[in-house]
Amino acid sequence: ETGVTQSPTHLIKTRGQQVTLRCSSQSGHNTVSWYQQALGQGPQFIFQYYREEENGRGNFPPRFSGLQFPNYSSELNVNALELDDSALYLCASSPRGSFHEQYFGPGTRLTVT
Amino acid sequence: QQQVKQSPQSLIVQKGGISIINCAYENTAFDYFPWYQQFPGKGPALLIAIRPDVSEKKEGRFTISFNKSAKQFSLHIMDSQPGDSATYFCAASENTPLVFGKGTRLSVIA
Question: Which residue of chain B has the CA closest to A9?
């Protein structure tokens, strides 16, 4: 059984640019959540996608947006990057009927210079 | 507003000892309390989780103790090993999302 995968592993962008991060959910999982983890902090919820629609959003501005595809994979897009967006971006998938259980991927380390 | 408070921030335990990490929450609507283990450069891995209808859950060397009236829960790692050295996060949720504590860096020394 393949776990949650994310790409790319690392990314360096310049302030003001746009970035797209990708996530493939674990087999049998249909819900994807995205979190931002700053250095030395716990993950912070960005949003969740279920049935290709946003199903809850944390305290993040609209320049953070996402998509979920029919195969349950997902993208996180961030526009107008700011220095404070530098963080580890984590994707987590949940089994059918169990939003609570969240299994994380290895993350994408984004550095904004 | 920090909804889940975790302590201690760091912990050093001798090999074979018991590691204890505590969390307190504010939102009484929370109904799911997981613990995650994270190694450097990796994503958090789900260790064990509990619902508020039970006071204790054990899986191998890991035990969650839950006190609903005090709004507190804790992780006990029995017979701690150097391989347990990692950062541990408690979390809580009501449906979704997970609200995480700030983490505890555990070092198990031989």
Answer: B41
A45 touches chain B (CB under 8 A): yes
User: What sign has the CA pseudo-torsion B47, B41, A74, A78?
Assistant: positive
Q: Compare CB distances from B102 to A41, A48, A104 and report the shortest one's residue.
A: A41
Chain A residues near residue B34 by CB distance under 8 angstroms? 100-102
Q: Hey, what are B79's tokens?
A: 């017979």
Selected for mutation to probe chain A from B96, B104, B105 (highest A CB count within 10 Å) is B96
Give, in degrees to the nearest 5, the angle at Cα A53 between A100 and A96.
35
Q: Do A104 and B93 touch (CB under 8 A)?
A: no
Closest CA to A68 of A56, A54, A79: A54
β-pairing verdict for A74-78 and A19-24: antiparallel
Residue B25 has pLDDT above 60, yes or no: yes
Helix (H, G, I), strand (E, B) or coil at B88: strand
pLDDT tens digits, A38-97: 999 999 999 999 999 999 999 999 999 999 999 999 999 999 999 999 999 999 999 988
Q: Maximum distance among all alpha carbons in chain A?
A: 40
